């Protein structure tokens, strides 16, 4: 386990964005020098109502950097299931194995977003992929996809960094 919050953030960025050093650079920059990060990303942060350094700035930087690299889908709390699926399928981390999305054939898409995310998490999990949310304490779900084998690492690293990554669905292991 990483020794510092900075190390945990960098490890989390590497886990969620393999081969994309820009993600870790942005996250550690936000952690190391929040004022400079705020200045460099003022327009983007203004969209979130952030105009001064906040304790969650590095976590927000992670969410934004992952989204910029098509590794995170940020969906509204009341998003339609079809739109959630479209955004997840557009991610670079989208599972490509033949059975990854077979659960959709029988999924009830006429349920609340949170309930659908639990269904999606279970279905994707059965195919080897974890659906997780990087909680930014907002009315949206920043969603990421990781192999089931890395699910515990994701949750543990987020916790070590002082943040929350939640897993959707009923998964074993």
Summarize this, please?
It contains eight helices and four strands. The protein has 173 residues and is of the alpha+beta class. The protein has one domain (5-167).
What's the topology here?
Elements: H1 5-16, H2 21-32, H3 34-40, H4 42-47, H5 57-68, E1 73-76, H6 81-89, H7 113-126, E2 129-134, E3 140-147, H8 151-160, E4 165-167
Antiparallel strand pairs: 1-3, 2-3, 2-4
Helix pairs in contact: 1-2, 1-8, 2-3, 2-5
Pfam families: DUF6630 (PF20335)
Protein name: DUF6630 domain-containing protein
InterPro entries: DUF6630
Detailed description of the structure:
- The protein is built from eight helices and four strands, in the order αααααβααββαβ.
- It has 173 residues and is an alpha+beta fold.
- The protein has one domain.
- It has a four-stranded antiparallel β-sheet, sandwiched between helices.
- A hairpin with a 5-residue loop joins β2 and β3.
- InterPro entries: DUF6630.
- This is DUF6630 domain-containing protein.
Order of helices and strands: HHHHHEHHEEHE
The total domain count is 1
Low-confidence stretches: none
Shape: globular
End-to-end separation in angstroms reads 20 Å
Q: How many β strands by DSSP?
A: 4
Counting H and I runs of at least 4 residues, what is the number of helices? Answer: 8
Q: Estimate the helix proportion, in percent.
A: 40-55%
**Main pleated-sheet profile:** 4 strands, antiparallel
Strand content: 5-15%
Class inferred from helices and paired strands: alpha+beta
Strand order within the widest sheet? 1-3-2-4
Write down the Rg.
16 Å
Quaternary structure state of the chains depicted = single chain
| Mean pLDDT score | 95
Organism: Umezawaea endophytica
Domain DUF6630: 8-165
Pfam families: DUF6630
Protein name: DUF6630 domain-containing protein
